[in-house]
Amino acid sequence: MEDLTCKARMVASPPRRPPTPADPCALVLFGATGDLTHRLVIPALYNLSRTNALPESFALIGVARGRTTTQAWRDDLRASLEKYIRGAIDENAWRRLAERMTFLPGDLADAGFYETLRGELDARTATQGNAIFYLAIAAQLFDVVTQNLSAAHLLDQPQDEDGVRKHWRRLVIEKPFGHDLASARALNAQLQKIVSEDQIFRIDHFLGKDTVRSIMAFRFGNGLFEPIWNRDRIDHIQITAAETVGVETRGKFYEQTGALRDMLPNHLLTLLSMVAMEPPVRFDAAHMLSKRAEVLAAIPEVEPGCAVRGQYGAGDVLGRPKKRYRDEANVAQNSGIETYVAMRLEIENWRWAGVPFYLRTGKHLSKRLTELAIRFKPAPSTPFRDAVEGMRPNWLHLRIAPDEGISLQFEIKRPGPAMDLASVRMDFRYDDWFPKEPNIGYETLIHDVMTGDQTLFMRADMVEQTWRIVQPVLDAWAASADLPAYVSGGAGPAEADALLAREGRRWLPIEAA
Asked: pTM to 2 decimals?
């Protein structure tokens, strides 16, 4: 395709609706001194403070081991905010948040600590008893924390004599939601013994991005696209999540996880469920989650022959030399953990029967890119058989990162006397039309927890379906030592190209996608 780009033009639209007001509440943040808190949770809460989206009556209680003080904890988070927020810090917004922050040191395995936590919550009468327990901790600690919260009755939602709930209690857990199908089922069973499903918010920052949610608006808000969103008009769909970074300081975590567990059951299959779902009756949590769950239930288990893995070797990424995965910190010299995955799957329902979906994700690739690319079936070339050497397909790109937007590739006639076609791309970019607001993806999700909206979260049955889909691949890889290497800064192992080539297709180049 030549570099011929048509700029999109925005037409008049109604003013933006204000967000749903959040209830007064306290947020208890387990893992308050950890990396996740510094990189994502506190910057998101700061951005909510900056946009006045936090409840007027709000408290943040940080929980972690150690003997730091509340002021030292605030100062540490304020310093790290400089690294994760673009532009100058709004000191008034930070002060509004910092004034509501309290650090509570404690041993998460000590049942007595939770009585102390109860006292802290009870002292904050302005929050009206509403509380969020955010587990920004390692997955192996979920059990001990939730059991202790339950034993201390901190997850209870009592009712008055008229059956009206006195306050709400909600639990936020970070991915991975299990390590495989068996552990996901065990985690769900454990949680459902102590809380109801409507209290559980399984958070995935991908779903907080505007362009992810725009998939639904694009499909169902336009009469142009939904009629062709099916097996009759779509040849195949590619979903890519390419990263230029390696494992960096996360070697210990990655050795227990790998690319498949880290990205497929959560990010990529979630994106697939949104692009492939049937139209909901309305955009509320019950209808949206049910339609996404239907898609996942219709995906057969992936056969091991339809999946490829790889591990990055040495190379250059964005002009900088990079070492191989096995030379990273906290990584075994004989590690069999994959840093790249490509997979082919299908959805066995009326809309998508016979349409392959190709998913790929990897580290130390040539470009950072997250997008869904829909290839439409080509038009008949008969009218142009004497003038054109083959018809090029139409592509629709839904870009999640880094340049959020939507583009459509189509054919036009070149100027001049000959019937000569050229491929052009009509491009919409969010940054061209809307003010760039600081957003890391968690702001919407945390606000949704405060309002009780589960639309952008994962339900228990959906989590189990995603693990069911990939479990045969996990089993096969656990029994095999075959792990192709790929050069850092490239597009992944050659075996991933062969996965599509055997069906006469090929990946879009990451550099040009």
From this structure: 0.91
